[in-house]
Amino acid sequence: MPDREPLNVLFLxxxxxxxxxxxxxxxxxxxxxxFRGYSAGSMPKGKVHPHTLSTLSRLGYPTGGLRSKSWDExxxxxxxxxxxxxxxxxxxxxxxCPLWPGQPITAHWxxxxxxxxxxxxxxxxxxxxxxxxxxxxxxxxxxSLPLASLDRISLQRRLDAxxxxxxxxxxx
Length: 172
What we know:
By secondary structure, this protein is α/β, with parallel strands linked by helices. The protein is built from 5 helices and 4 strands. The termini are far apart.
């Protein structure tokens, strides 16, 4: 892959304020230049959840430039050609997505919404940490795939299997 442009990966969620933003940050740093990550939502909140930014900052991820945006930005003719599109929430997986330029490979990697946890600050922090761990694990598996040696059907099977991996939450 080093002689090729980075592969473009879009992570989708309904609100584009937590999970998809976390995934974008992970792949942009941990993809080692082989991947360019993006995120978007079908109904973006318009701002990144504060716990998303604090979680990423605490773990050493750059957060400058992260923003909540519509998936319409990636369906326009001038949008980056997408190689992969992953839904990270169950709502986005069930929605009718735009037609993506370039016929990207798609998969569903559902992760519980940490922004839905509002009981107390400790529970919210744990929910964001768990979402991060689950996304980090899946992205690590993805970036380690031998992409050049996999045909499209084999790659699709691998991506679907990655979406079924479960990272257990840490005990409270």
